[in-house]
């Protein structure tokens, strides 16, 4: 039976023909995201009884009945606590989904996770075990996703993703990671997220920023190993340029803040002054005449600023840097678009037991042999893309493969129809909305959650999470992206905290 609602829940959803009041309340509570006791339901102007075992049919509720749902207003403090709990749960769910997607991507070496693992000297990491490779890819992907969240101002979620990335890197052999700067940069980004939450006035972050002292200590030690005590290893890689200065501005700022909170004014002044000097060095290479020269070449804005910082103000080197970066970005975008197109086509056939998508190149070769596309795809899916095994299955178990292919096609068609129906219902609900209840926006926002979501929709969501992570991972192709710190926020914080310190004794 399909029931239509207005108020705190709007739209249509299905319940069993013999559904009870209790089952209805459970469904509505799930839709709104609040306990059932916080809801009241009216049918024909009368509130439904509290007896959960009463059937809707006995109350005269049918598909023609329009239900009005309202929320019981409770104590604001209780409401706020409930909202915080719901937000924390939603955040935990998001992080879990991101973690699962990252692990899935890392497990698909040849299919989607395309990372060239190199050390700080630019040499490939040869002889890396499969488990270590998965851990590194997972850590790199999660780190980049966290950086995107950080740039968007989602500091708490970014920190959660950074912590997942730290866990992933910790699984890898330490001999592989201790000479890379990926891990210390990750720790620095995590500490920066903590600092941003602290700056925003989050009371809980005050304690976490102090706890971040160990993270910063490990970051400092990691930079010394990866970059060399005097940055000599980094200079050898980057040809004398200083792309890393922004990282050290951020590091020494955070070390200075911790020193202030520890009551060590002298150490704080030392760290903040060092950060200020590096900030000034970075800003000094971005000269107006250099920016103008690059602008005349069609390079301006953040692109020009970034290139000048990375090339110590050398205009010719900065222009070459930009052209090289653009070419790489264009090639990466084309490759990514082609991968996404391939994935969309492959997803129609479902995944193998390992999670792998059907290999479309192998599928095309089987089509040239005269096999039906859907049947050949099912054979490949069932045999983990083993072409010979798929041919054997078609030769000796053709009927079973054809039956499975037909079932898969029907399932895909059903999923498409369900999505289409959902879109139509949402459009209809929008036209039907008569404002019967002055429920708040949170109630209305929750109404678009479909109560009949199933494992297929969950799978779609997982695929979306993987695609988001893949897009983040593609940004790892830029070896200098991790050094891209414009130091504007850092500079403002340095000046602010220096002003808080007492003048040094004469």
CATH fold label of the domain at 79-284 and 480-500: Hyaluronidase domain-like
Largest sheet: 5 strands, mixed
- Note the beta-strand portion: under 5%
Shape by Cα distribution: globular
The tally of helices reads 21
CATH hierarchy class name of the domain at 79-284 and 480-500: Mainly Alpha
Helix content: 55-70%
Give the strand line-up of the largest sheet.
Answer: 2-1-5-3-4
**SS content category:** mainly alpha
Question: Low-confidence segments, ≥5 residues, pLDDT <50?
Answer: 109-115, 433-462
Rg, rounded, reads: 29 Å
SSE arrangement, N to C: EEHEEEHHHHHHHHHHHHHHHHHHHH
What can you see in these coordinates?
It is built from 21 helices and five strands. The protein is mainly alpha-helical and 506 residues long. 64% of the residues lie in helices and 5% in strands. About 7% of the residues have low confidence. It has a five-stranded mixed sheet. Helix 15 crosses helix 16.
Short description:
This protein is mainly α and 506 residues long. 64% of the residues lie in helices and 5% in strands.
Features:
single chain, 506 residues, mainly alpha, Ubiquitin-like (UB roll), Hyaluronidase domain-like, 21 helices, globular
Question: What is the topology?
Answer:
Blueprint (H helix, E strand, L loop, with lengths): L1 E6 L3 E4 L6 H12 L6 E5 L2 E2 L18 E6 L4 H32 L22 H22 L3 H17 L2 H4 L4 H18 L3 H9 L1 H15 L4 H7 L6 H17 L3 H20 L3 H8 L6 H9 L4 H33 L12 H9 L4 H10 L4 H10 L1 H35 L8 H5 L9 H20 L13 H13 L6
Parallel strand pairs: 1-5
Antiparallel strand pairs: 1-2, 3-4, 3-5
Helix pairs in contact: 2-3, 2-4, 2-20, 3-4, 3-6, 3-20, 4-6, 6-7, 6-8, 6-10, 8-10, 10-11, 10-21, 11-21, 13-14, 15-16, 16-17, 16-18
